[in-house]
Amino acid sequence: MSGRIPGMAERELVEFTFEGEKVSAWEGDSIAMALWAVGQTDLRNSSSNGAPRGVLCNMGICYECLVIVDGETVRSCTTMVQPGINVQRGGKR
User: Which DSSP state fits 5?
Assistant: First the structure.
């Protein structure tokens, strides 16, 4: 796969769904970066004005990247992809 950092150990590809669409990602990637890699940058809408929100800090301090994984609201930047998970836009903070 192109775009790999030279010298990085190979990892397995895993599949999960985002908004009903299959997404392939590298095992060990965060949900945020897996979605970013396929061009999905809007992860939720602001609860105050409906504006799209996405990854901001990418280290688990803010709540901008909240998604719903199998019914639970999580930060996508600190949650790793797992085979077969179902990810939806959403989450409020």
Answer: P
Tokens (6 digits) for 77: 């930047």
Structural domain boundaries of the chain?
A: 13-89
* Residue with the two structure tokens 């019914």: 71
Token readout for 63 is: 């709540």
Could you give the CA distance from residue 20 to residue 90 in angstroms, rounded to a whole number?
14
Does the structure show a pLDDT above 80 at 84?
Answer: yes
Residue 19 pLDDT grade (very low, low, confident, very high; cuts 50, 70, 90):
very high
pTM higher than 0.85: no
Which among 13, 16, 15, 30 is positioned nearest to 88, based on CA atoms? 16
DSSP 66-93: EEEETTEEEETTSSB--TT-EEEE----
The CATH fold assigned to 13-89 is Ubiquitin-like (UB roll) (3.10.20)
